[in-house]
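Reopening this ticket.

The earlier resolution said the output was attached, but the attachment link was broken on my side. Pasting everything inline this time so it's all in one place.
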Amino acid sequence: MNKKVNLPKFKDENKERDFWTKFDLSEHFDPKDFISVSLPNLKPSSSAISVRIPSYLLVRLKEKAHELHIPYQTLMKQYIAKGIFAH
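Inline output:
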């Protein structure tokens, strides 16, 4: 199959997201057209947030992160993920 896909110019990210949500690759390509790829450096997107925590807790978090030789925000994310996925 392998038809040429003409992509529209998108006015904003929401319009592009809407387009890709409804776009069906099977109308343009056969499964044999695809190859397996590895993206080892791909990192999940993240969002900055503001969280108020007691000062003593932040101090302890930073101390623990220092002991582990990792940034305290990395340790905080690990603790949050562990809590979320524990159940």
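Reporter confirms the inline version is readable. The mean pLDDT is 90. The two ends are 46 Å apart (CA to CA).
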